[in-house]
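hey so u asked for the seq, here:
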Amino acid sequence: MTSGATIQEISFDCRNAATLACFWGNLLERPWGWRPAPGGVVDAGSTHLLFQVVPEPKNSPKNRLHLDVEVDDLAQGVARAESLGATRLDEFYDEDGDGFVVMHDPEQNEFCVVSQPGGGWSRLLASIATSPGVDPYALPPVLRTASFTLRRVREDDAEDLLACYAAPEAWPLFNTDHCTSDFRCVNTEQVQEAIAFWLTDGEANRYLRFAVVDRTSGTAVGTLEMFGRPADTWNDVAWGLLRLDLAPAFETPEHLRELFALADGFFDLFAVERILTRVPGHTPRHEAALGAAFAPFDWSRPGSTGAYLAKTRRSRPALPRP
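ran it, structure tokens below
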């Protein structure tokens, strides 16, 4: 009988789990998240990266990185490792049958042999990576839908985004209320200027502009902006605003439904109870927003124009943040 050994995750010892998970998630353009325990998690595709805060300094003899090796049978997996030259250091078991054994390989590198009969640990890591639990303005998340990856816009997206911002048919859908520009561009340099503005002004005024990246081509095909604000004269609950700019080729019901469905995760991520978006009527975008449970909303805030839709949820406790 085989022990069925596979890499469960790669674990990193660190001082700031959220910051490192943000770095690696954005470098790999993969979803990531954070909780006080177990720490920062990146969905790296075939495995997870786990970042855990430890008291030992970086120059400690302890490895800063180790593999967690999952096996079907813990005793058998440990015995097999020992037969190959590993040594046992410590072990832990819980009442659910999950457990792990800390070991040294033949060159004294730490690794863990782990077992999770119910699969609860893997489900926990997956849930963290899809629900960031951080301040999104300081530690920008990476989100995924079936068709798109969303990560913070970069200046090198400008050439791709010209297909969106230089398209006259896309311009009527831009929500430029309370903006300093209409973002109607005719060349890459103008798009670069817009991106530089979003990055600088977004940091100062707490909004996040994502690039919407087509997962098939790797091309940025639009942007999505989101921010949250406390309750005020025009909203009785904490509210957020979603702006969506897309290249005309992606202004389809299927793609729009995917993007508006992100609102469900934005409630927690941006700590809001209502999300507004400006959508012209009698358009595929309007129908997609209605299908995502947005509804007409009378928003009389000065400077706001056109028809707004809103999606509201019932309050619940916010996730802890680093």
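The helical segments are 17-28, 74-83, 120-129, 158-165, 188-205, 253-260, 263-269, 284-291. The chain has two domains: 6-129, 143-312.
lmk if thats what u needed
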